[in-house]
Amino acid sequence: MTWRSILLTPNVLGKDGVSALSREMARALPSPALIVSLHDDSRTPDFSPVGIEVRGANGSRLAFIAAALNAARHAGSETVVVCSHLHLAPVAKCVSVVIGSTRPTVMLCGIEAWKPLRRFERWALGASEVASISQHTVDRFKAANPKLGGIDVHVCHPGLSATGKPVLGLSSMALIVARMSASERYKGHDTLLDMWPRVVKRHPDAMLVVAGDGDDRARLEARARDLGVARAVKFVGAVSDKALTTLYEQCRFFVMPSRDEGFGLVFLEAMRAGKACIGGTGAAGEIIEHGVTGFVVDPARHGDVEVAVQLLYDDPGMCARYGGGGRERFMAMFTDRHFQTRFAEVVTRPAAATLAPSMPLVPR
User: Fold this and answer.
1) Smallest Cα–Cα separation from 286: which of 300, 274, 302, 271?
2) pLDDT per residue over 328-342, tens digit each?
3) pTM
4) Are 297 and 304 contacting, i.e. CB atoms less than 8 angstroms apart?
5) Which listed residue, 17, 232, 322, 358, has the most CB atoms within 10 A of its CB?
6) Is the pLDDT of residue 189 over 60?
7) Which domains are delineated in the chain?
8) Strands of 129-132's sheet, edge to edge?
């Protein structure tokens, strides 16, 4: 068999954002397609659409590189080579060189691209088609890597399957879905907890439901108790896909005032369910239409976050309108088919000279 597409990814079988993005990228590629995953175990192929094969390296970088180069032996010059994470770009470039194919396509997913690149990553990107999940990520990437400012980066907003129907009922539950990690306190949990005593004072039945888990959960639960809102904040931990869908359906609105999101699939999940959203400035502003589908607020201005929360509790009509608007925006721009069309246009476009003038052809 000759592979028409090879996708290199850190993981594809998990519930994290990179896995979800990798699955959608794979569906957009010509088949038969091979996914070489660094962290997955190919003996558990939970993702197995027709025409797509998964081979996992189970966390071994040597096994991953060997699998990628072995895949090159079964590829032709027309094979599409794609990489869903910047750190794997050098391997993707080597594979494309081995098979003599066109330039590989590398996706910038967020925070990993907001730092100065290592020399082999610079070399790989300088000879690749580059796409990004958001304009915010493009801007942060170029600010951190001014020598790569001449690279043409194509924005491909991710999408989700258009399953289910919107549920416009208005409960008293606000929802945040985010990992609680001591290294990722930018998600906005503390901001919400700090304001929740005032929210409850104005709306006694207001309930903040926190979905997700992590090493910072115990601290946040203790903080809720110290603030006297333990009964008004419910930590539900990691939940199944079915339970998460129910939470989106039951909530009044979704809120995640994060400072540093590369994109934010959780906003799409909420909009798909017909819920108004509150997000932080940055990538969320590319998803949420301020004053139409929700609010885009500055996370550093805690008062602005609280005003948005109080408004959606105060005004049921506004909450319902924003939720309906969010569902319409999701269906018009952010379904999986929209993403697959956008991404397919990037990987099939003719090779272009996007190399920055100061970019060396070999790493040094």
Assistant:
1) 271
2) 999 999 999 999 999
3) 0.90
4) yes
5) 322
6) yes
7) 3-159+337-348 (3.40.50.2000), 173-334 (3.40.50.2000)
8) 52-56, 33-37, 3-9, 75-83, 105-108, 129-132, 153-155
